[in-house]
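We store chain and fold; thus.
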Amino acid sequence: MRAAVLHETGQDKLEVLDDVEAVGFGPGKVRLRIRATGLCHSDLSAMNGVLPQPAPFVPGHEGAGEVLDVGDGVTGLSAGDRVLVCWLPACGACASCKRGQTHLCLAGFMNAGTPNFKRPGGDVFGFAGTGTFTEEVVVGADCAVPIPDDVPFEIAALIGCGVTTGLGAAINTAQVEAGSSVAVIGCGGVGISAIQGARVRGAAQIIAVDPVESRREAALRFGATEAVSPEAFADAKARVTAGEGFDYVFEVVGKSVTARTAYENTRRGGTLCVVGAGAMDDNFQVNMFELFFDEKRILPSMYGGGDVLRSYERAIALWRAGRIDLESMITHRVRLDGINDALDQMRTGESLRTCIEL
C-alpha cells in the first residue's frame, strides 16, 4: 500500500512509497482504510524533532476512514463503520482516567514506540501511535471512534485533533466567560478553532494575532472582532483593554517567546492558556514576584482538556447547529502525492488546514 514516510528526523520532505505494509493486527485491534487526513502543525514538529518521535515514521494523526476488519475481542465496531482516529485514547484504568482527566492518559503515547508499519528495509513507526498519511493503518480499537453518517470524512478528521484542541482550550480549559476580552496568538487551524470556541462562549472582543495577512483575514471570518500583526498587538491591547491586558490570552504557537508575550498581555488576575506544543529545551520563564503579585493563571491545555469523546460529540453538535464553521477551515485539498506541497504551504502560513484525500 501507499504511505508517506519520513526516513530521518530533520528531513523536510516525505517520500511517498508503495511498499509499506500495516502491521500489528490481532486481538483488540482494528484495520482502517483512511479516507481523509488533515495536516497538523504537530506533524511538522515531529518531522523536525521538536516533538519526540522514533524514525522512520509515517506522519499524520488527524484522520478518518472506514473499518476494514476487527480483531478478536473488539466490540462496538464492525467492518464498514465510519470512524475518526483518536490519537490519545483513554485506557479507563490509570490514575488520570480515574480522576476524570482522561486527556492526560499516557496509554496512547505508549503506542508510539511500537511499529505500525513495515517495509522490506525494516520497521516503520506511526506518529503518535497512529500514522494517517497512508491508505491503511492498524490501531487499537479505542483509537477508532464511530462518527454519524452525516459527518464527512474531512470534517471528522479535523475534529480528531485541531478542532477539538482549539475549541476545548476555550471551552474546557480556560472556560471563557461571556462578555470577556480574548486574544489568540497564532491563527492556524488550532488558533482559528480557539477563536470559534471563544465566540461560542460569548466573548465580547476577540483579537487575532498572526504575522501572516491571509490568516488574519481568515480569523475575521471565523469570529475575531479584530486581527493584527504581532507588531500591532501592543496598540490593540491599549485600545481594547485601556492598557490593562486581556481577560484571556491563548498561545497557539508553542514557543517561549510568544508565551512570554501572551503573559505580558494578560491582565492581572487573567488567564494565559498555553495550547501550542513546544520543544523540551525551550523554557518559559516568569519571575517569582510577578507570579505572586499579578496572580495570572497559567493553564496548559493538552488536546483541549476534558473528555475527548465528549468533545468530539460537542464539536459535531455545534457544527450541525451552524455555531462553528469547519468546512471553511479546509483551504487546500491534495492527494497523497501532493503532500510535500502541502507541507510547504503550512510552513509559509498559506494554509489553515489541508485535507489529504486518499
Remarks:
- The radius of gyration is 20 Å.
- Residues 30 and 314 are 25 Å apart (CA to CA).
- The chain is about 30% helix and 25% strand.
- The longest strand covers residues 29-38.
